Protein backbone atom coordinates (compact mmCIF):
# COMPACT_ATOMS: atom_id res chain seq x y z
CA UNK A 1 0.00 0.00 0.00
CA UNK A 2 2.93 2.34 0.69
CA UNK A 3 4.07 2.71 -2.93
CA UNK A 4 0.48 3.44 -3.97
CA UNK A 5 0.18 6.37 -1.56
CA UNK A 6 3.62 7.95 -2.11
CA UNK A 7 3.28 11.72 -2.46
CA UNK A 8 -0.35 11.87 -1.32
CA UNK A 9 0.24 13.82 1.87
CA UNK A 10 -2.46 16.16 3.10
CA UNK A 11 -2.18 19.90 2.56
CA UNK A 12 -1.10 22.02 5.50
CA UNK A 13 -4.57 23.56 5.78
CA UNK A 14 -6.42 20.23 5.72
CA UNK A 15 -8.29 19.33 8.88
CA UNK A 16 -10.37 16.45 10.13
CA UNK A 17 -14.11 16.97 10.56
CA UNK A 18 -16.41 14.58 12.36
CA UNK A 19 -19.40 13.21 10.47
CA UNK A 20 -21.63 15.34 12.72
CA UNK A 21 -19.74 18.53 11.84
CA UNK A 22 -19.90 17.78 8.13
CA UNK A 23 -23.59 16.91 8.23
CA UNK A 24 -24.44 20.08 10.17
CA UNK A 25 -22.52 22.11 7.61
CA UNK A 26 -24.19 20.36 4.68
CA UNK A 27 -27.66 20.81 6.18
CA UNK A 28 -26.94 24.54 6.43
CA UNK A 29 -26.71 24.76 2.66
CA UNK A 30 -30.15 23.17 2.29
CA UNK A 31 -32.05 25.35 4.77
CA UNK A 32 -32.82 28.08 2.18
CA UNK A 33 -34.56 25.42 0.06
CA UNK A 34 -37.00 24.12 2.68
CA UNK A 35 -40.02 24.39 0.37
CA UNK A 36 -38.55 22.23 -2.34
CA UNK A 37 -37.13 19.82 0.22
CA UNK A 38 -40.62 19.34 1.71
CA UNK A 39 -41.97 18.70 -1.79
CA UNK A 40 -39.16 16.20 -2.37
CA UNK A 41 -40.02 14.44 0.90
CA UNK A 42 -43.69 14.22 -0.13
CA UNK A 43 -42.75 12.80 -3.52
CA UNK A 44 -40.39 10.30 -1.90
CA UNK A 45 -43.17 9.20 0.44
CA UNK A 46 -45.69 8.79 -2.36
CA UNK A 47 -43.13 7.00 -4.52
CA UNK A 48 -42.32 4.65 -1.64
CA UNK A 49 -46.01 4.01 -1.08
CA UNK A 50 -46.34 3.03 -4.73
CA UNK A 51 -43.22 0.87 -4.46
CA UNK A 52 -44.57 -0.99 -1.44
CA UNK A 53 -48.11 -1.16 -2.83
CA UNK A 54 -46.99 -3.03 -5.92
CA UNK A 55 -45.98 -6.33 -4.27
CA UNK A 56 -48.86 -6.03 -1.79
CA UNK A 57 -51.40 -5.74 -4.61
CA UNK A 58 -49.81 -8.61 -6.50
CA UNK A 59 -49.81 -10.77 -3.38
CA UNK A 60 -53.48 -9.98 -2.71
CA UNK A 61 -54.35 -10.57 -6.36
CA UNK A 62 -52.97 -14.10 -6.23
CA UNK A 63 -55.41 -14.99 -3.47
CA UNK A 64 -58.23 -13.21 -5.30
CA UNK A 65 -57.55 -15.07 -8.52
CA UNK A 66 -57.68 -18.36 -6.65
CA UNK A 67 -61.31 -17.65 -5.69
CA UNK A 68 -62.36 -15.66 -8.80
CA UNK A 69 -60.16 -16.31 -11.84
CA UNK A 70 -62.41 -14.34 -14.21
CA UNK A 71 -60.97 -12.29 -17.10
CA UNK A 72 -62.48 -9.12 -15.66
CA UNK A 73 -60.66 -9.70 -12.39
CA UNK A 74 -57.37 -10.29 -14.17
CA UNK A 75 -57.88 -7.11 -16.23
CA UNK A 76 -58.61 -5.01 -13.15
CA UNK A 77 -55.56 -6.38 -11.37
CA UNK A 78 -53.36 -5.65 -14.39
CA UNK A 79 -54.84 -2.14 -14.68
CA UNK A 80 -54.24 -1.51 -10.98
CA UNK A 81 -50.61 -2.62 -11.20
CA UNK A 82 -50.11 -0.42 -14.28
CA UNK A 83 -51.58 2.62 -12.53
CA UNK A 84 -49.35 2.00 -9.53
CA UNK A 85 -46.30 1.83 -11.81
CA UNK A 86 -47.33 4.99 -13.71
CA UNK A 87 -47.95 6.88 -10.46
CA UNK A 88 -44.56 5.81 -9.12
CA UNK A 89 -42.92 7.12 -12.31
CA UNK A 90 -44.70 10.50 -12.04
CA UNK A 91 -43.81 10.91 -8.36
CA UNK A 92 -40.20 9.92 -9.04
CA UNK A 93 -39.97 12.35 -11.97
CA UNK A 94 -41.21 15.25 -9.85
CA UNK A 95 -38.79 14.25 -7.11
CA UNK A 96 -35.87 14.12 -9.55
CA UNK A 97 -36.84 17.53 -10.96
CA UNK A 98 -36.90 19.21 -7.57
CA UNK A 99 -33.77 17.34 -6.50
CA UNK A 100 -31.88 18.60 -9.56
CA UNK A 101 -32.93 22.17 -8.80
CA UNK A 102 -31.93 21.96 -5.13
CA UNK A 103 -28.64 20.22 -5.90
CA UNK A 104 -27.70 22.76 -8.57
CA UNK A 105 -28.49 25.67 -6.25
CA UNK A 106 -26.49 24.15 -3.40
CA UNK A 107 -23.47 23.44 -5.61
CA UNK A 108 -23.74 26.98 -7.01
CA UNK A 109 -23.68 28.49 -3.53
CA UNK A 110 -20.89 26.20 -2.36
CA UNK A 111 -18.70 27.08 -5.34
CA UNK A 112 -19.32 30.76 -4.75
CA UNK A 113 -18.31 30.37 -1.11
CA UNK A 114 -15.18 28.36 -1.80
CA UNK A 115 -14.04 30.61 -4.66
CA UNK A 116 -14.69 33.72 -2.59
CA UNK A 117 -12.63 32.23 0.25
CA UNK A 118 -9.87 31.19 -2.16
CA UNK A 119 -9.36 34.61 -3.77
CA UNK A 120 -9.26 36.21 -0.30
CA UNK A 121 -6.40 34.03 0.91
CA UNK A 122 -3.12 35.87 1.29
CA UNK A 123 -0.16 35.41 -1.05
CA UNK A 124 1.63 32.98 1.26
CA UNK A 125 -1.19 30.52 0.60
CA UNK A 126 -0.44 30.54 -3.13
CA UNK A 127 3.27 30.25 -2.47
CA UNK A 128 2.71 27.02 -0.56
CA UNK A 129 0.00 25.30 -2.63
CA UNK A 130 -0.02 24.57 -6.39
CA UNK A 131 -2.87 26.26 -8.22
CA UNK A 132 -3.93 23.00 -9.90
CA UNK A 133 -4.73 21.44 -6.52
CA UNK A 134 -6.77 24.48 -5.55
CA UNK A 135 -8.68 24.34 -8.85
CA UNK A 136 -9.46 20.67 -8.21
CA UNK A 137 -11.16 21.51 -4.93
CA UNK A 138 -13.15 24.38 -6.41
CA UNK A 139 -14.43 22.35 -9.37
CA UNK A 140 -14.25 18.57 -8.94
CA UNK A 141 -14.84 18.35 -5.20
CA UNK A 142 -17.79 20.73 -5.21
CA UNK A 143 -19.41 18.73 -8.00
CA UNK A 144 -18.85 15.46 -6.17
CA UNK A 145 -20.48 17.07 -3.17
CA UNK A 146 -23.76 16.80 -5.10
CA UNK A 147 -23.50 13.02 -4.78
CA UNK A 148 -24.15 13.41 -1.06
CA UNK A 149 -27.51 14.93 -1.90
CA UNK A 150 -28.56 12.22 -4.34
CA UNK A 151 -27.40 9.46 -2.02
CA UNK A 152 -29.30 10.98 0.87
CA UNK A 153 -32.52 11.30 -1.11
CA UNK A 154 -32.25 7.74 -2.41
CA UNK A 155 -31.60 6.51 1.13
CA UNK A 156 -34.73 8.29 2.37
CA UNK A 157 -36.77 6.63 -0.37
CA UNK A 158 -35.37 3.19 0.41
CA UNK A 159 -35.89 3.67 4.15
CA UNK A 160 -39.57 4.50 3.69
CA UNK A 161 -39.97 1.51 1.40
CA UNK A 162 -38.48 -0.81 4.04
CA UNK A 163 -40.76 0.59 6.76
CA UNK A 164 -43.83 0.01 4.62
CA UNK A 165 -42.78 -3.51 3.64
CA UNK A 166 -42.15 -4.40 7.29
CA UNK A 167 -45.65 -3.15 8.12
CA UNK A 168 -47.10 -5.41 5.46
CA UNK A 169 -45.02 -8.42 6.51
CA UNK A 170 -46.27 -8.00 10.10
CA UNK A 171 -49.79 -8.55 8.84
CA UNK A 172 -48.69 -11.80 7.20
CA UNK A 173 -46.64 -13.30 10.04
CA UNK A 174 -45.29 -11.49 13.09
CA UNK A 175 -42.65 -14.04 14.10
CA UNK A 176 -41.07 -14.33 10.67
CA UNK A 177 -41.11 -10.53 10.28
CA UNK A 178 -39.34 -10.03 13.61
CA UNK A 179 -36.78 -12.63 12.58
CA UNK A 180 -36.19 -10.73 9.35
CA UNK A 181 -35.87 -7.40 11.14
CA UNK A 182 -33.47 -8.93 13.66
CA UNK A 183 -31.11 -9.87 10.83
CA UNK A 184 -31.11 -6.39 9.24
CA UNK A 185 -28.60 -4.85 11.73
CA UNK A 186 -25.99 -7.42 10.69
CA UNK A 187 -26.19 -6.05 7.14
CA UNK A 188 -25.77 -2.51 8.47
CA UNK A 189 -22.83 -3.60 10.62
CA UNK A 190 -21.04 -5.01 7.57
CA UNK A 191 -21.52 -1.75 5.67
CA UNK A 192 -20.47 0.45 8.60
CA UNK A 193 -17.25 -1.53 8.99
CA UNK A 194 -16.21 -0.10 5.62
CA UNK A 195 -16.74 3.49 6.70
CA UNK A 196 -13.22 4.51 7.72
CA UNK A 197 -11.55 2.58 4.91
CA UNK A 198 -13.95 4.09 2.38
CA UNK A 199 -13.21 7.63 3.60
CA UNK A 200 -9.46 7.03 3.42
CA UNK A 201 -9.33 5.57 -0.09
CA UNK A 202 -11.68 8.28 -1.37
CA UNK A 203 -9.51 11.05 0.05
CA UNK A 204 -6.44 9.48 -1.57
CA UNK A 205 -8.25 9.38 -4.91
CA UNK A 206 -9.02 13.07 -4.66
CA UNK A 207 -5.47 13.95 -3.68
CA UNK A 208 -3.98 12.13 -6.65
CA UNK A 209 -6.50 13.86 -8.94
CA UNK A 210 -5.37 17.21 -7.55
CA UNK A 211 -1.72 16.28 -8.15
CA UNK A 212 -2.46 15.35 -11.77
CA UNK A 213 -4.39 18.60 -12.31
CA UNK A 214 -1.55 20.65 -10.83
CA UNK A 215 1.07 18.92 -12.99
CA UNK A 216 -0.97 19.36 -16.18
CA UNK A 217 -1.52 23.05 -15.45
CA UNK A 218 2.16 23.59 -14.69
CA UNK A 219 3.23 21.74 -17.86
CA UNK A 220 0.93 23.76 -20.10
CA UNK A 221 1.93 27.06 -18.45
CA UNK A 222 5.61 26.24 -18.87
CA UNK A 223 5.40 24.60 -22.30
CA UNK A 224 7.62 27.28 -23.87
CA UNK A 225 10.49 26.49 -21.50
CA UNK A 226 9.89 22.76 -21.82
CA UNK A 227 10.12 22.94 -25.60
CA UNK A 228 13.19 25.18 -25.57
CA UNK A 229 15.01 22.63 -23.39
CA UNK A 230 13.56 19.65 -25.28
CA UNK A 231 11.94 18.37 -22.11
CA UNK A 232 8.64 17.15 -23.59
CA UNK A 233 9.58 13.52 -22.78
CA UNK A 234 10.41 14.50 -19.20
CA UNK A 235 7.09 16.23 -18.51
CA UNK A 236 5.27 13.32 -20.15
CA UNK A 237 7.19 10.90 -17.93
CA UNK A 238 6.12 12.89 -14.86
CA UNK A 239 2.53 12.88 -16.04
CA UNK A 240 2.69 9.17 -16.80
CA UNK A 241 4.00 8.42 -13.29
CA UNK A 242 1.23 10.53 -11.69
CA UNK A 243 -1.37 9.02 -13.99
CA UNK A 244 -0.31 5.47 -13.13
CA UNK A 245 -0.44 6.33 -9.45
CA UNK A 246 -3.94 7.65 -10.08
CA UNK A 247 -4.79 4.34 -11.73
CA UNK A 248 -3.54 2.35 -8.73
CA UNK A 249 -5.32 4.58 -6.22
CA UNK A 250 -8.52 4.52 -8.29
CA UNK A 251 -8.36 0.75 -8.59
CA UNK A 252 -7.90 0.41 -4.83
CA UNK A 253 -10.85 2.72 -4.23
CA UNK A 254 -13.04 0.88 -6.72
CA UNK A 255 -12.26 -2.51 -5.22
CA UNK A 256 -12.86 -1.22 -1.70
CA UNK A 257 -16.20 0.43 -2.43
CA UNK A 258 -17.46 -2.33 -4.69
CA UNK A 259 -16.47 -4.99 -2.15
CA UNK A 260 -19.45 -4.03 -0.01
CA UNK A 261 -22.01 -5.34 -2.50
CA UNK A 262 -20.80 -8.98 -2.70
CA UNK A 263 -20.71 -9.10 1.09
CA UNK A 264 -24.17 -7.61 1.30
CA UNK A 265 -25.40 -10.11 -1.30
CA UNK A 266 -23.96 -12.95 0.76
CA UNK A 267 -25.59 -11.59 3.92
CA UNK A 268 -28.99 -11.22 2.22
CA UNK A 269 -28.70 -14.75 0.83
CA UNK A 270 -27.96 -16.18 4.25
CA UNK A 271 -30.82 -14.13 5.74
CA UNK A 272 -33.26 -15.37 3.09
CA UNK A 273 -32.15 -18.98 3.71
CA UNK A 274 -32.73 -18.59 7.45
CA UNK A 275 -36.20 -17.11 6.88
CA UNK A 276 -36.96 -19.84 4.36
CA UNK A 277 -35.97 -22.57 6.83
CA UNK A 278 -37.89 -20.96 9.69
CA UNK A 279 -40.92 -20.48 7.46
CA UNK A 280 -40.77 -24.10 6.37
CA UNK A 281 -40.92 -25.17 9.97
CA UNK A 282 -43.75 -22.75 10.61
CA UNK A 283 -45.89 -24.27 7.87
CA UNK A 284 -46.29 -27.30 10.14
CA UNK A 285 -47.95 -25.12 12.78
CA UNK A 286 -49.36 -21.62 12.34
CA UNK A 287 -48.80 -20.50 8.72
CA UNK A 288 -50.19 -22.04 5.59
CA UNK A 289 -47.99 -22.66 2.50
CA UNK A 290 -49.67 -19.87 0.50
CA UNK A 291 -48.87 -17.23 3.14
CA UNK A 292 -45.36 -18.57 3.45
CA UNK A 293 -44.89 -18.31 -0.33
CA UNK A 294 -46.21 -14.74 -0.37
CA UNK A 295 -43.98 -13.91 2.57
CA UNK A 296 -40.89 -15.19 0.73
CA UNK A 297 -41.88 -13.19 -2.36
CA UNK A 298 -42.01 -10.01 -0.29
CA UNK A 299 -38.67 -10.84 1.40
CA UNK A 300 -37.07 -10.44 -2.02
CA UNK A 301 -38.34 -6.85 -2.16
CA UNK A 302 -37.14 -6.26 1.41
CA UNK A 303 -33.46 -7.11 1.05
CA UNK A 304 -32.66 -4.74 -1.83
CA UNK A 305 -33.53 -1.52 0.04
CA UNK A 306 -31.91 -2.86 3.21
CA UNK A 307 -28.73 -3.54 1.23
CA UNK A 308 -28.93 -0.06 -0.31
CA UNK A 309 -29.34 1.56 3.10
CA UNK A 310 -26.43 -0.36 4.57
CA UNK A 311 -24.10 0.28 1.62
CA UNK A 312 -25.12 3.94 1.70
CA UNK A 313 -22.66 4.64 4.50
CA UNK A 314 -19.66 3.44 2.53
CA UNK A 315 -20.73 5.40 -0.55
CA UNK A 316 -21.60 8.40 1.60
CA UNK A 317 -17.93 8.71 2.55
CA UNK A 318 -17.19 9.70 -1.05
CA UNK A 319 -19.37 12.77 -0.72
CA UNK A 320 -18.20 13.52 2.82
CA UNK A 321 -14.53 13.43 1.82
CA UNK A 322 -15.30 15.89 -1.01
CA UNK A 323 -17.15 18.14 1.43
CA UNK A 324 -14.29 17.85 3.92
CA UNK A 325 -11.73 19.04 1.36
CA UNK A 326 -13.95 21.94 0.27
CA UNK A 327 -14.70 23.09 3.82
CA UNK A 328 -11.00 22.86 4.72
CA UNK A 329 -10.23 25.28 1.89
CA UNK A 330 -12.99 27.64 3.05
CA UNK A 331 -11.96 27.46 6.72
CA UNK A 332 -8.24 28.03 6.17
CA UNK A 333 -7.25 30.84 8.49
CA UNK A 334 -5.53 33.75 6.69
CA UNK A 335 -2.16 34.83 7.96
CA UNK A 336 -2.81 38.46 7.06
CA UNK A 337 -5.11 39.68 9.82
CA UNK A 338 -6.61 43.16 10.05
CA UNK A 339 -7.22 44.50 13.54
CA UNK A 340 -9.62 47.19 12.37
CA UNK A 341 -11.65 48.53 9.48
CA UNK A 342 -10.82 52.24 9.42
CA UNK A 343 -11.66 54.03 6.14
CA UNK A 344 -8.91 55.17 3.78
CA UNK A 345 -9.48 58.24 1.62
CA UNK A 346 -8.25 58.92 -1.93
CA UNK A 347 -4.81 60.36 -2.54
CA UNK A 348 -4.12 63.97 -1.69
CA UNK A 349 -3.94 66.02 -4.88
CA UNK A 350 -4.65 69.49 -3.51
CA UNK A 351 -8.07 69.59 -5.17
CA UNK A 352 -10.13 67.81 -2.50
CA UNK A 353 -12.38 69.49 -0.04
CA UNK A 354 -11.38 67.54 3.03
CA UNK A 355 -14.61 68.03 5.04
CA UNK A 356 -16.63 66.41 2.23
CA UNK A 357 -14.58 63.21 2.26
CA UNK A 358 -15.68 60.15 4.22
CA UNK A 359 -12.07 59.67 5.29
CA UNK A 360 -9.03 61.96 5.36
CA UNK A 361 -7.16 61.99 2.03
CA UNK A 362 -4.12 59.73 1.80
CA UNK A 363 -0.87 61.68 1.73
CA UNK A 364 1.31 58.60 1.34
CA UNK A 365 3.80 58.73 4.18
CA UNK A 366 5.03 55.21 5.01
CA UNK A 367 6.90 54.31 8.18
CA UNK A 368 8.54 50.99 9.01
CA UNK A 369 9.22 50.74 12.74
CA UNK A 370 11.39 47.82 13.80
CA UNK A 371 9.63 45.44 11.44
CA UNK A 372 10.49 41.77 11.67
CA UNK A 373 9.47 39.51 8.81
CA UNK A 374 10.08 35.97 7.58
CA UNK A 375 8.35 33.81 4.98
CA UNK A 376 9.02 30.65 6.99
CA UNK A 377 10.26 29.83 10.46
CA UNK A 378 13.65 28.81 9.10
CA UNK A 379 14.93 32.13 7.77
CA UNK A 380 14.38 35.75 8.82
CA UNK A 381 14.28 38.16 5.87
CA UNK A 382 13.95 41.43 7.78
CA UNK A 383 15.31 41.08 11.34
CA UNK A 384 14.75 44.70 12.47
CA UNK A 385 13.86 47.07 9.66
CA UNK A 386 13.06 50.77 10.10
CA UNK A 387 12.49 53.31 7.34
CA UNK A 388 10.55 56.57 7.01
CA UNK A 389 9.35 57.42 3.49
CA UNK A 390 7.97 60.93 3.21
CA UNK A 391 4.75 61.65 1.36
CA UNK A 392 5.49 62.22 -2.33
CA UNK A 393 9.08 60.97 -2.02
CA UNK A 394 10.61 58.56 -4.54
CA UNK A 395 12.73 55.95 -2.78
CA UNK A 396 14.78 53.33 -4.63
CA UNK A 397 15.81 50.06 -2.99
CA UNK A 398 18.95 48.40 -4.32
CA UNK A 399 21.03 45.44 -3.27
CA UNK A 400 21.95 41.93 -4.24
CA UNK A 401 19.32 39.24 -4.68
CA UNK A 402 18.00 38.15 -1.29
CA UNK A 403 18.67 41.51 0.39
CA UNK A 404 14.96 41.88 1.22
CA UNK A 405 13.99 44.56 -1.32
CA UNK A 406 10.94 42.85 -2.80
CA UNK A 407 9.80 41.78 0.67
CA UNK A 408 9.41 45.42 1.64
CA UNK A 409 7.16 46.00 -1.37
CA UNK A 410 5.09 42.92 -0.49
CA UNK A 411 4.64 44.15 3.08
CA UNK A 412 3.50 47.58 1.92
CA UNK A 413 0.92 45.98 -0.37
CA UNK A 414 -0.18 43.83 2.60
CA UNK A 415 0.36 40.57 0.73
CA UNK A 416 2.18 39.04 3.70
CA UNK A 417 1.93 39.37 7.46
CA UNK A 418 4.93 40.69 9.37
CA UNK A 419 5.75 39.14 12.72
CA UNK A 420 6.92 42.17 14.66
CA UNK A 421 7.00 45.97 14.65
CA UNK A 422 4.69 48.38 12.85
CA UNK A 423 4.05 49.72 9.36
CA UNK A 424 2.23 53.05 9.33
CA UNK A 425 0.41 54.94 6.60
CA UNK A 426 0.10 58.62 7.47
CA UNK A 427 0.59 57.68 11.11
CA UNK A 428 -1.99 54.87 11.16
CA UNK A 429 -1.13 51.19 11.51
CA UNK A 430 -1.95 49.52 8.18
CA UNK A 431 -3.37 46.54 10.10
CA UNK A 432 -6.16 48.79 11.41
CA UNK A 433 -7.27 50.01 7.96
CA UNK A 434 -9.96 48.74 5.63
CA UNK A 435 -7.90 46.37 3.48
CA UNK A 436 -9.84 46.95 0.26
CA UNK A 437 -9.66 50.74 0.52
CA UNK A 438 -6.02 50.58 1.55
CA UNK A 439 -4.99 48.51 -1.46
CA UNK A 440 -6.97 50.84 -3.70
CA UNK A 441 -4.36 53.47 -2.83
CA UNK A 442 -1.44 51.26 -3.91
CA UNK A 443 -0.38 50.81 -7.52
CA UNK A 444 1.88 47.82 -8.14
CA UNK A 445 3.82 46.98 -11.29
CA UNK A 446 5.61 43.64 -10.76
CA UNK A 447 8.60 42.33 -12.68
CA UNK A 448 6.35 40.11 -14.80
CA UNK A 449 2.98 41.85 -15.09
CA UNK A 450 -0.05 39.64 -15.55
CA UNK A 451 -2.60 40.55 -18.20
CA UNK A 452 -6.05 39.02 -18.29
CA UNK A 453 -7.66 37.68 -21.44
CA UNK A 454 -9.22 40.51 -23.44
CA UNK A 455 -8.04 43.69 -25.07
CA UNK A 456 -5.46 46.25 -24.04
CA UNK A 457 -8.32 48.58 -23.08
CA UNK A 458 -9.91 45.88 -20.91
CA UNK A 459 -6.67 45.47 -18.97
CA UNK A 460 -6.17 49.21 -18.49
CA UNK A 461 -9.75 49.47 -17.23
CA UNK A 462 -9.27 46.50 -14.86
CA UNK A 463 -8.94 48.57 -11.68
CA UNK A 464 -11.86 50.85 -12.65
CA UNK A 465 -14.45 48.83 -14.57
CA UNK A 466 -16.75 51.87 -14.75
CA UNK A 467 -14.15 53.99 -16.60
CA UNK A 468 -15.18 55.33 -20.00
CA UNK A 469 -13.30 54.78 -23.25
CA UNK A 470 -12.07 58.36 -23.05
CA UNK A 471 -10.64 57.69 -19.56
CA UNK A 472 -8.85 54.61 -20.86
CA UNK A 473 -7.39 56.55 -23.76
CA UNK A 474 -6.15 59.32 -21.47
CA UNK A 475 -4.48 56.77 -19.18
CA UNK A 476 -2.80 55.10 -22.17
CA UNK A 477 -1.51 58.41 -23.53
CA UNK A 478 -0.22 59.40 -20.10
CA UNK A 479 2.43 56.70 -20.52
CA UNK A 480 5.13 57.88 -22.93
CA UNK A 481 2.62 60.02 -24.80
CA UNK A 482 0.84 56.91 -26.08
CA UNK A 483 3.55 56.29 -28.71
CA UNK A 484 3.71 52.62 -27.72
CA UNK A 485 0.16 52.11 -29.01
CA UNK A 486 1.41 52.54 -32.58
CA UNK A 487 3.10 49.13 -32.35
CA UNK A 488 -0.20 47.48 -31.43
CA UNK A 489 -2.07 45.99 -34.43
CA UNK A 490 -5.44 47.35 -33.28
CA UNK A 491 -4.34 49.94 -30.76
CA UNK A 492 -6.32 49.79 -27.54
CA UNK A 493 -8.52 47.06 -29.01
CA UNK A 494 -5.58 44.68 -29.54
CA UNK A 495 -6.23 41.28 -28.01
CA UNK A 496 -3.50 40.51 -25.49
CA UNK A 497 -3.91 36.70 -25.68
CA UNK A 498 -3.64 34.28 -22.78
CA UNK A 499 -1.65 35.84 -19.90
CA UNK A 500 -0.66 38.64 -22.32
CA UNK A 501 1.25 36.21 -24.56
CA UNK A 502 0.47 38.19 -27.72
CA UNK A 503 2.49 41.14 -26.43
CA UNK A 504 6.16 41.52 -25.69
CA UNK A 505 7.36 41.85 -22.11
CA UNK A 506 7.91 45.57 -22.61
CA UNK A 507 4.42 46.08 -24.05
CA UNK A 508 2.94 44.24 -21.10
CA UNK A 509 4.82 46.56 -18.75
CA UNK A 510 3.49 49.61 -20.59
CA UNK A 511 -0.07 48.28 -20.30
CA UNK A 512 0.54 47.65 -16.59
CA UNK A 513 1.76 51.22 -16.13
CA UNK A 514 -1.33 52.59 -17.89
CA UNK A 515 -3.43 50.40 -15.60
CA UNK A 516 -1.82 52.05 -12.57
CA UNK A 517 -2.40 55.52 -14.05
CA UNK A 518 -6.08 54.63 -14.42
CA UNK A 519 -6.20 53.50 -10.79
CA UNK A 520 -4.69 56.82 -9.59
CA UNK A 521 -3.16 55.50 -6.33
CA UNK A 522 -1.38 57.49 -3.65
CA UNK A 523 1.50 54.99 -3.41
CA UNK A 524 3.35 53.44 -6.33
CA UNK A 525 5.48 50.27 -6.06
CA UNK A 526 7.70 49.33 -9.01
CA UNK A 527 9.20 45.88 -8.41
CA UNK A 528 12.13 45.41 -10.84
CA UNK A 529 9.74 46.10 -13.71
CA UNK A 530 12.52 47.04 -16.15
CA UNK A 531 14.84 44.12 -15.43
CA UNK A 532 13.79 42.00 -18.44
CA UNK A 533 13.22 44.49 -21.25
CA UNK A 534 15.23 46.13 -24.00
CA UNK A 535 16.75 49.62 -23.57
CA UNK A 536 14.37 51.24 -26.10
CA UNK A 537 11.27 50.02 -24.25
CA UNK A 538 12.88 51.01 -20.98
CA UNK A 539 13.13 54.57 -22.22
CA UNK A 540 9.39 54.53 -22.94
CA UNK A 541 8.73 53.16 -19.48
CA UNK A 542 10.90 55.86 -17.93
CA UNK A 543 8.74 58.50 -19.58
CA UNK A 544 5.65 56.74 -18.24
CA UNK A 545 7.16 56.59 -14.77
CA UNK A 546 7.53 60.34 -14.69
CA UNK A 547 3.77 60.69 -14.99
CA UNK A 548 3.01 57.98 -12.44
CA UNK A 549 5.50 59.20 -9.83
CA UNK A 550 4.41 62.82 -9.99
CA UNK A 551 2.90 63.80 -6.61
CA UNK A 552 2.94 60.18 -5.43
CA UNK A 553 4.96 58.27 -2.87
CA UNK A 554 7.01 55.86 -4.97
CA UNK A 555 8.99 52.80 -3.99
CA UNK A 556 11.29 51.59 -6.77
CA UNK A 557 12.85 48.15 -6.45
CA UNK A 558 15.35 47.78 -9.27
CA UNK A 559 18.71 46.68 -10.57
CA UNK A 560 18.69 49.17 -13.46
CA UNK A 561 20.59 52.42 -13.13
CA UNK A 562 18.12 54.54 -15.07
CA UNK A 563 15.33 53.41 -12.80
CA UNK A 564 17.00 54.53 -9.55
CA UNK A 565 19.57 57.23 -10.18
CA UNK A 566 17.05 60.07 -10.13
CA UNK A 567 15.27 58.88 -7.00
CA UNK A 568 15.00 61.34 -4.12
CA UNK A 569 16.73 58.77 -1.96
CA UNK A 570 18.47 55.45 -2.62
CA UNK A 571 18.36 52.79 0.10
CA UNK A 572 21.12 50.19 -0.12
CA UNK A 573 20.27 46.89 1.57
CA UNK A 574 22.12 43.77 2.61
CA UNK A 575 20.60 40.81 4.47
CA UNK A 576 17.46 42.70 5.39
CA UNK A 577 19.24 45.77 6.79
CA UNK A 578 19.95 49.27 5.50
CA UNK A 579 23.68 49.74 5.11
CA UNK A 580 23.68 52.99 3.08
CA UNK A 581 21.29 55.67 1.95
CA UNK A 582 21.49 58.92 0.06
CA UNK A 583 21.42 60.33 -3.47
CA UNK A 584 23.16 58.74 -6.42
CA UNK A 585 26.15 61.12 -6.47
CA UNK A 586 26.58 61.01 -2.70
CA UNK A 587 26.66 57.21 -2.60
CA UNK A 588 29.11 57.01 -5.49
CA UNK A 589 31.41 59.48 -3.76
CA UNK A 590 31.21 57.47 -0.53
CA UNK A 591 32.74 54.46 -2.33
CA UNK A 592 30.67 51.95 -0.38
CA UNK A 593 28.42 49.07 -1.39
CA UNK A 594 26.41 51.19 -3.83
CA UNK A 595 29.59 52.23 -5.63
CA UNK A 596 30.50 48.55 -5.83
CA UNK A 597 27.11 47.74 -7.37
CA UNK A 598 27.51 50.61 -9.80
CA UNK A 599 30.97 49.54 -10.94
CA UNK A 600 30.05 45.87 -11.36
CA UNK A 601 26.53 46.20 -12.75
CA UNK A 602 25.08 49.66 -13.28
CA UNK A 603 28.10 51.01 -15.14
CA UNK A 604 27.82 48.24 -17.70
CA UNK A 605 24.20 49.24 -18.26
CA UNK A 606 25.22 52.85 -18.76
CA UNK A 607 27.72 51.95 -21.49
CA UNK A 608 25.13 49.64 -23.05
CA UNK A 609 22.65 52.49 -23.18
CA UNK A 610 25.15 54.80 -24.87
CA UNK A 611 25.86 52.20 -27.56
CA UNK A 612 22.16 51.68 -28.34
CA UNK A 613 21.30 53.60 -31.57
CA UNK A 614 17.60 54.02 -30.81
CA UNK A 615 18.03 55.07 -27.20
CA UNK A 616 15.43 57.76 -26.56
CA UNK A 617 16.45 59.29 -23.32
CA UNK A 618 16.15 62.98 -22.66
CA UNK A 619 18.69 64.97 -20.71
CA UNK A 620 16.74 64.67 -17.51
CA UNK A 621 16.86 60.89 -17.73
CA UNK A 622 20.48 60.61 -18.88
Note down, in words, how this protein is organized.
- Helices cover 60% and strands 9% of the residues.
- With 622 residues, the chain is α/β, with parallel strands linked by helices.
- The protein folds into two domains: 19-194 and 259-331, ABC transporter transmembrane region fold (Up-down Bundle); 362-610, P-loop containing nucleotide triphosphate hydrolases (Rossmann fold).
- It has a six-stranded mixed β-sheet with strand order 6-7-8-3-9-10, sandwiched between helices. A four-stranded antiparallel β-sheet has the order 2-1-4-5, with helices on one face.
- The relative contact order is 0.08.
- The model is unreliable at 1-8 and 607-622 (pLDDT under 50).
Name the quaternary structure: single chain
Query: What is the beta-strand fraction?
Result: 5-15%
Class by alpha and beta content: alpha/beta
CATH level 1 class label of the largest domain: Mainly Alpha
Please state the second-level CATH architecture of the largest domain.
Up-down Bundle
Largest sheet: 6 strands, mixed
Order of helices and strands: HHHHHHHHHHHEEEHEEHEHHHEHEHEEHH
Instruction: Enumerate the strands of the largest sheet in spatial order, edge to edge or round the barrel.
Output: 6-7-8-3-9-10
Helical percent range? 55-70%
Could you give me the name of the CATH homologous superfamily of the largest domain? ABC transporter type 1, transmembrane domain
Give the averaged pLDDT, no decimals.
77
Query: How many strand segments?
Result: 10
- Radius of gyration from the alpha-carbon trace, in angstroms: 35 Å
Number of helical runs?
A: 20
Number of domains: 2
Amino acid sequence: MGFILDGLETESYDRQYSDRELLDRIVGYFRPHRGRMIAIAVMITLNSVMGALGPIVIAGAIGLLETNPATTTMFLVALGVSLIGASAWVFNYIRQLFSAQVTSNVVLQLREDVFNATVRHDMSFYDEHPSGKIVSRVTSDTQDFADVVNLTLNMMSQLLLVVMLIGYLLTVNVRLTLLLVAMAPFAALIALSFRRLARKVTQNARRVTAIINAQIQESISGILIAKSFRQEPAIYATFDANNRQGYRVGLTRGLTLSGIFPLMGLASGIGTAIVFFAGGLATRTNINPAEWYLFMQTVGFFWFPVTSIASFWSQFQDGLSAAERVFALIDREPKVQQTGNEPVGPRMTGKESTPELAAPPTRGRIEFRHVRFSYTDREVVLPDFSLDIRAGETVALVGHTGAGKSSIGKLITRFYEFQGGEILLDGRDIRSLDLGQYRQQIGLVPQEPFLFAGTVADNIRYGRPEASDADVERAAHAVSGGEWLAAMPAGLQTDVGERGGSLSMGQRQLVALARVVMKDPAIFVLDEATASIDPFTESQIQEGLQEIMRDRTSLVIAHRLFTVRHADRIIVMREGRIIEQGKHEELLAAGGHYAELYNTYFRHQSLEAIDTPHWKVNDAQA
